Amino acid sequence: MEKRKEYQFPRDALLAWFGANRRDLPWRRTYDPYHVWISEIMLQQTQMERGVEYFNRWIALFPDIRALAAADELTVFKAWEGLGYYSRVRNIRKAAGVLVGEHDGRVPDDYDTLLGLPGIGPYTAAAIMSIAFDRAFPLVDANVARVFARLQDIDRPMKERGVQRELHELLKEMLSDVSPRDFNQALMELGALVCTPRNPDCGGCPVRAYCEALQAGTVAERPVNSGRVERIDIVMACAIVEHQGRIFIQQRQEDDIWGGLWEFPGGRLKDGEEPEEAAVRELFEETELRAVNLRPFRTVIHHYTRYRVTLHSFCCSLRGKVDPRLHAAQQWSWVAPEELEQYPFPAGHRQLIAALKQDLLFPSGSRRCCA
Ligand code: SF4
Predict the structure, then answer these.
(1) Is residue 4 part of a domain?
(2) According to the model, what pLDDT value does residue 76 have?
(3) How far is CA 170 from the centre of its chain?
(4) In the 8-state DSSP scheme, what is residue 229?
């Protein structure tokens, strides 16, 4: 990216457009640092509409950092259920504890202190400093990177280190004499609403007169792709164990990718293994319980950013003991089917619970799982 010291950018036009078009998002009503922090973490890998829904529910449950720190784990995880990337919610809980213990229940107005909190990296710290405290920290998210790739017709991937560094420097210069809070949000909003990945609305763009890609006819080629990420297929199987009208569930260990969430025991298929064999093996390896009388239940598919997970499930009963010895979980429980919804589960397992609920309400012969 060629550095343009004399780079002209219509900041006033952009800010005027933002003033007239910005979305009414709940954290923009107060810019409370706690609200900004939670919204920033929630919106990672989450669409705005969904993020707002979760945010409103979250703030109703935990109106401030002290309420969050005092809440029990089950309630906090349940409020996050469905957003995925559960290390984020684990870190939020830890950070809330630190904020209450060391910062009087407040988000500190200091970049380096923010960086020391669990789950807060350079981008999130800069976002809190800029949006909550109106300080001059540049923000380059995917929207801002796309806007500048087009404005400056950049023919290199925006993720390249040199391109990122130069864009940060340029933005730092542009933040002088404006409200960093408004300017950063205006750029992000432009990328989200006008300069969209496909079919940008160049006719309605407040900075179109300065757009080099528009003049060069290269808008559709910007930003330059940094290479396709192949999606990885994963096939898993799990056992829905029934005993005396109750179902066995276990809670994953803290250091697990789904740490803190509950699940039906299961795991990946080994090479050459059938899903039913895997369900029996995984149940035994994880709990030392022996599954018998397996009946196929649902197969569900869930897409993650880099993975596609196919999950086969089997209802079964037990031979022998019913008290497990855990090897992959921190605790277990036998619960009534209608109690399953009180626990936080990963996405694929939630689909199974919805199917179980449907079958309980509308039993239909062989597909029915719960006796
Ligand atoms: Fe994006 Fe079009 Fe505006 Fe250029 S003119 S910044 S491509 S919306």
Answers:
(1) no
(2) 96
(3) 29
(4) P
